[in-house]
Each structure stands twice: as C-alpha cells, then as structure tokens.
C-alpha cells in the first residue's frame, strides 16, 4: 500500500514507486535521501536536487497520479536499495521559472549531490545546462558533486519529433554531446533515460544515491581529521 506524506501548505501526496514518470510543467526537482546501515542503526542523510531544464516537460523520475497544480513547492517520496542500504528519497519539485529565482535557492540547503537534467530533443534545454543551471548550482552548492541526465531518449527515434527538429535546422542531442557537457561542468557521471519507456530510471536513482553517500562519507572523514588536527 502507498503511504502518505504531508508537505508545506497542507498538501498530501502518495508515496510512489521508483521508476514511474513525473510529467510536469517547467521547473526543478529536488530529492532528499535517508539511508540506514544494515549493520546497525546508524543513518546517512543526503539531498539530491534534480535540475530539469526550464523547457523540459518531464523529470523522468516519478509519476503523479493526481492532476498537477503549479506551485512553488511540491514533494514526492519513493525508495531505492543501494547495496544493502534502503534509501528513502523525498523529491522536492520547485518552480524553475525566472519569477522563482529568488525562492529556488532555499531548496539547496544541505545538498549532497545535484542532478542537472535536460531534454535530448531540445537544443535550448541542452544549452541551459551550462548557461543557466550549472552557474546557479555552482554558486549555491559549490563543491557538491553533480550528475548530468539526458532525458526523453526514446524520442530520438520519433519521426514526428525528428521532422520538427530538422524543420528548424536542428538535430537531437547525441550521447557524445552529453558526455562533453558532463566534462564541461565537471559532473561525476553522464546518464541517459527514457521515462516513457522506463529505461534506466532506477539506475539514475542508484547512481545518484551512491555518489551522494560517497561524498558524505568523504566529508565526514575530513571533518574527523580536522577535529583531530585542532585537538
């Protein structure tokens, strides 16, 4: 059965299964994770902001079973197993329009890994990775590991979508272009997925969670050494 979770504003959302699709208006999504070590009661907590392009229509993460109503803040919950750790993911969906540029940074607090997403069938969406989202993320989350995600890969073979792109003298963004952007923004890894076809969705979560937990362990190790040095 689905559990329910309350979010600011009194809204209640269902806990959804991993790999479902979130079709949404332009915006940005943030995921916060919590994991329990199977060897004890110790917990890890991580945040995974997902930064879809302002023109992306789907975050390729979760499926909303209710009608979407645009707002400044929405929350969805799912879970993923990484190794022997079960991780609960709380996805925070925030508006990506310029009107909310001053509010969006509030969601960056305590972030451990950032997902920057773009639409492989939208060159403008791809350009915004380096032009808009990376500068914003780098400013508010400097030093936090990044993951770059190419979404809607199933549309690369869609004849109608290809016709529209070529009519505008454009082409789909290739995997190699995604890899190049990954290097340009110093992201940890580049991944592609198709929400519609359920391709690689779970792997996106697992990779992001693994990177988040790894970064947290390293940061904690640095803090330990710093304390010892001071003492």
Automatic annotation (TrEMBL):
SUPFAM superfamilies cross-referenced by the UniProt entry: P-loop containing nucleoside triphosphate hydrolases
Subcellular location: Cell membrane
GO BP, sorted A to Z: actin filament organization; small GTPase-mediated signal transduction
The keyword Nucleotide-binding belongs to this UniProt entry's keyword annotation: yes
Keyword presence, Ligase: no
UniProt xrefs under InterPro entries: P-loop_NTPase, Small_GTP-bd, Small_GTPase, Small_GTPase_Rho
Main location: membrane
PROSITE patterns the record matches: RAB, RAS, RHO
Annotated GO CC locations: plasma membrane
GO molecular function: GTP binding; GTPase activity
NCBIfam families: small_GTP
Homology family: Belongs to the small GTPase superfamily. Rho family.
Full protein name: Ras homolog family member F, filopodia associated
Organism listed in the record: Taeniopygia guttata
């Amino acid at each position: 059965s689905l559990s329910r979770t309350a979010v600011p504003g009194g809204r209640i959302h269902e806990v959804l299964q991993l790999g479902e699709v979130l079709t949404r208006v332009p915006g940005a999504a943030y995921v916060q994770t919590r994991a329990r070590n199977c060897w004890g009661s110790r917990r890890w907590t991580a945040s995974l902001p997902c930064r879809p392009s302002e023109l992306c229509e789907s975050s390729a993460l979760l499926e909303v079973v209710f009608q979407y109503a645009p707002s400044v803040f929405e929350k969805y919950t799912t879970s993923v197993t990484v190794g022997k750790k079960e991780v609960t993911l709380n996805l925070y969906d925030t508006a990506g329009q310029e009107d909310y540029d001053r509010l969006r940074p509030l969601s960056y607090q305590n972030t451990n890994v950032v997902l920057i997403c773009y639409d492989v069938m939208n060159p403008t969406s791809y350009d915004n990775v380096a032009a808009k989202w990376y500068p914003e993320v780098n400013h508010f989350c400097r030093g936090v590991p990044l993951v770059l995600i190419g979404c809607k890969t199933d549309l690369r073979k869609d004849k109608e979508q290809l016709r529209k792109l070529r009519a505008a003298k454009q082409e789909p963004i290739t995997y190699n272009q995604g890899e190049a952007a990954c290097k340009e923004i110093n992201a940890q890894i580049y991944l592609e997925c198709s929400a519609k076809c359920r391709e690689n969705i779970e792997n996106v979560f697992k990779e992001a969670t693994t990177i988040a937990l790894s970064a947290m362990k390293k940061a904690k190790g640095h803090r330990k050494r710093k304390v010892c040095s001071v003492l």
